[in-house]
Structures are given as C-alpha cells and as structure tokens.
Specification:
Blueprint lengths: L5 H25 L13 E5 L6 H17 L3 E5 L6 H8 L7 E3 L3 H10 L7 H4 E16 L8 H10 L5 E4 L5 H13 L4 E4 L3 H9 L5 E5 H9 L4 E5 L25 E9 L4 H15 L2 H9 L3 E5 L1 H22 L5
Parallel strand pairs: 1-2, 1-3, 5-6, 5-7
Antiparallel strand pairs: 4-7, 4-8, 4-9, 4-10
C-alpha cells in the first residue's frame, strides 16, 4: 500500500483535525453568553433531511426542544426527505438569511454530494454558513454470524484469498457506509464488491438474513442485533473505542492499523444570515447540547458530542469536500 495514497492522507488528516475540533469546542463553550444579538421574534424552522424517528431526527428534536425551552422560541420541525438530502439542501439554500431557517445535514449531504453529483442545485461552500458541528458518528463494521471472519484481520485474509468475491452493502453509492468500506478496501489493499441498497433497514435485513455477509452501519442501528447474536461486530470505525460500547474494538485494533473514519452531523443556515445571528444560534445550541438529557440522548444513539463553532465547522466542511473528492476519485466512483 502506497503511503501517499489519497485515502491514507484522508485518515491522517481526519485524526489531526479531530484534535482541532475538540479544542475549538472547548473554546466555544467558554464563550457562551458573550453575544447580545437577539434571535428573530418568529418561529424557527429546523429542516431535517431524514424521516421522523430516524436517529438524526431524534437528536435534532432533542436539541430544538431544549433551545425552545431556553429562549421561548417556537420550533417547527420540517422533515424534508429525498434525493440524498438534495431537496432539503436546495430549499434551505434558497431561504431568506433571517435566522429563522436552520438545516441539520450530515457529511454526505454537504461534503460527499458535491463530488458524487455532476450538477447540484446548491453549492456547499457558497450557499451555507456553518453554525455548530453537533456530533461525530462512529460506524460499526458487522457481519452475519456464519461469515468466516471474527475480526478485521480475518476479513482482510478472506478478501485476499477471494479477490472481489465478498459482497458488502450500504445505503447507496457515496454514502458514509460505502465510503468507510472503500477506505478500508484501499488501506488493506483488497477487493470487495459493493451491492448498494436504498434504505438502511433493507441493507441490515440482508446482512441479518445472510444474503450479504458484511456492512458498515451506524452503531445505533445494529447494536441490538449484535447483542442478540444476529450479527457479529468486527470493529468500530473511529480511532478510539466508543463510550456507547467500550467493549467493541476499533478497526485499527482489530487488524487494520491507521484506519479511522467517522461521519458527522451539524447545523448550518443560509449563507446570507448575519454573523451575529449565526453566533447567537451557536451559543444557544451549545447550551442545549450541554444539558444532561440532550447529552444522554446523543450518547444513547451512538453519537459523540462535539459542539464546535462556526469557524472550526466551516474548516471541517471545506476540508471534507476536498478529502471526500480524493476518496471518491481513488475508489473510481463516477458522479451521477
């Protein structure tokens, strides 16, 4: 494996930037209350590009409800699903920048879509202002119990003995689950076959049923199946073990040193939103995220709280657009 591989650089830079985000989050928390800008005296619309009851919807509602309790503002949750988040992103990008529209995308919508689609009705770097990086999301690498691998080292050995013969699934081309596996494939120097699905439930059902042997998934989606013996855990994608399941080894521990990949979620607003309102929104969201009930909700779903502010989150978005572009090109994924 060439040490200068774009994917190797992706992993190293991601780990380095995680330390920067942690420092920024601590500094941001220390500055709460410094801003005097009032929020608009109108309901705030939280646009969530995932369905009601999804993990992102659950944490979005928890944060929004706490902000409402702090400020007295009315919060309206708008679950705007479809087209890999493109529908929601376009609507927010074209909304007035008056502080009343907030958007809770993930890294796929803001960083992967720009390199996966030849034409988008929004420009991530031009049309949005970052407010708060709410959380990072480690992924779990799981397999059907009958699959002859109990660790990442075993999986790599199986793939080397049968190049291209082992299938894996995801929620679609360019999804976090897909890119996490492509990073593993490149770093390990192996070949595997991608069989994408359109929905997480369908993908998990195929692995639980043994139709497809292996996949990455958000931890909250599979932790119950692992505990019940319907799936087995090979490793967690983050560089450190997750507080939600500290008994689970990382992929680096399980056989692939240097591997680290996490997805993320955050809150952005239309780019024309005044900086003073952006800062006030970040302060209120950070206060909400420090409430024990909100922190516990995020943790129970496998999300790791960050709380980094506009500057650090903006830098992460810019860097990930570039990094994921390199990862997509190295994997040979063609834009739609």
């Amino acid at each position: 494996m060439n040490a200068s591989s774009p994917k190797n650089a992706y992993g190293r830079n991601r780990r380095r930037f995680a330390h920067q985000l942690l420092s920024a989050a601590v500094l941001g928390a220390a500055s709460l209350g410094a801003g005097a800008q009032s929020l608009p005296d109108r309901p705030l619309r939280w646009v969530i590009p995932f369905g009601a009851g999804s993990a992102v919807d659950t944490i979005g509602r928890a944060i929004a409800n706490q902000v409402a309790a702090q400020t007295g503002q009315t919060m309206v949750i708008d679950n705007r699903t479809g087209a890999n988040g493109i529908i929601a992103a376009e609507m927010v990008a074209k909304s007035p920048g008056d502080g009343t529209t907030l958007f809770m995308p993930n890294d796929g919508i803001l960083a992967a879509n720009p390199v996966l689609y030849a034409k988008l009705p929004y420009d991530t770097l031009r049309d949005f202002s970052a407010v708060t990086l709410t959380s990072t999301v480690p992924l779990a690498l799981v397999a059907h119990p009958s699959f002859p691998a109990s660790s990442v080292a075993d999986l790599i050995a199986q793939a080397r003995s049968r190049p291209g013969a082992i299938d894996f699934t995801s929620t679609g081309v360019g999804s976090a689950q897909h890119l996490a596996m492509e990073f593993l494939v490149d770093l390990a120097g192996i070949k595997m076959n991608h069989v994408p699905h359109k929905a997480m439930g369908q993908a998990i059902a195929d692995v639980v049923g043994g139709t497809i042997p292996v996949m990455f998934s958000g931890m909250s989606n599979v932790i119950g199946f692992v505990r019940d013996g319907k799936l087995k855990l090979l490793g967690v994608s983050a560089s450190k073990r997750s507080p939600a399941a500290p008994q689970w080894p990382t992929i680096a521990e399980s056989g692939l040193p240097g591997y680290s990949y996490v997805a993320w979620n955050g809150i952005v607003v239309p780019a024309s939103t005044p900086p003073a309102i952006v800062r006030r929104l970040h302060e209120e969201i950070s206060r909400a995220m420090n409430e024990p009930a909100v922190r516990d909700k995020l943790g129970s779903l496998g999300f790791e709280l960050v709380g980094a502010g506009p500057e650090a989150f903006s830098q992460l978005i810019r860097d990930d657009v570039a990094r994921l572009g390199k990862l997509v090109r190295a994997a040979g994924i063609q834009p739609n």
